[in-house]
Amino acid sequence: YSPDVLFKAVVSTQSTGALASSPVVNMPFITDTLLQQYYSLDSEVAKELVGRGQKMTAKFRKDLDVISDKTGIPLRSCLRQYDNIRRIYKEIDEKEGRVAHNIQRYYALSPALCHQYAALIYIIDNRIDVAPRKVPNLTYPALIKCVTILMSDWCPTFDGCSDMDIDRSFFKELHSLKDKI
């Protein structure tokens, strides 16, 4: 077995959040390295996965060969990234609190990677269309930065609130302001 196959088996059999303390990968440096590599994201693939502004369904998974051909990233890597985003999204979706903090708590990923996943989950959850035809010059780092600003500045900030929630009244005020201009 290759390390990727063994690690995938561990990830799929462990309860969420228990991977870091698993006896199978109980060496801190190796655990951290494996986690970071397994959950790493290719910017081209991540942007394509969330760019359509739709939920990640099983039907969407069948179209990953198109993304693989378009980006030049092997299909196996595209599938891994899709499965990771979907797994984290399902776990974090209904949790209260800051998304990046919850990802770090349950998956023990680096803060930078947690913020990337939080931004991608925010795009998916709010069905924001960031397809290349809509925003052709937006790079992946700029996309993550923009979404992070949306999450921190345009979401309600009261206790117990997730930064996935959009302040709907704020958007209504923006819409009415647009009509007046």
Supply database-style keywords.
single chain; 181 residues; 10 helices; globular
Layout of helices and strands:
Blueprint: H1 3-13, H2 28-38, H3 43-50, H4 58-62, H5 64-71, H6 75-92, H7 99-107, H8 111-125, H9 140-153, H10 168-180
Helix pairs in contact: 3-5, 5-6, 7-8, 8-9
Strand coverage percent: under 5%
Proportion of helical residues:
55-70%
Treating each run of at least 4 consecutive H or I residues as one helix, how many helices?
10
Kindly report how far apart the N and C termini lie. 63 Å
Tertiary shape: globular
Q: What order do the SSEs take from the amino end to the carboxyl end, as H and E?
A: HHHHHHHHHH
Task: Describe the protein's architecture and organization.
It is a single chain. With 181 residues, this protein is mainly alpha-helical. The chain is 62% helix and 0% strand. The protein is built from ten helices and no strands. The chain has helices spanning 3-13, 28-38, 43-50, 58-62, 64-71, 75-92, 99-107, 111-125, 140-153, 168-180. Helix 3 runs antiparallel to helix 5 and helix 5 crosses helix 6. The longest helix is centred in the middle third of the chain and has 18 residues, at 75-92. The chain is globular and about 55 Å long. The model has no long low-confidence stretch (mean pLDDT 79).
